[in-house]
Amino acid sequence: MRLQDKVAVITGGSRGIGFATAQTFLREGAKVVICASRQETAEKALKRLREEYPGSDVEAIWPNLADYQQVREQLGAVAEKYGRIDVLVNNAGISDSTPFTEYTEELFRKVMDLNVLGTFNCSRVVAEIMDKMGSGVILNVSSMVSIYGQPSGVAYPTSKYAVNGMTRSLARELGPKGIRVNAVAPGITETDMMKAVPEHMIAPLIAQIPLHRLGQPEDIANALLFLASDEASYITGVTLSVDGLATT
Question: Which residue in 103, 148, 156, 161 is the catalytic one?
Answer without folding.
Answer: 156
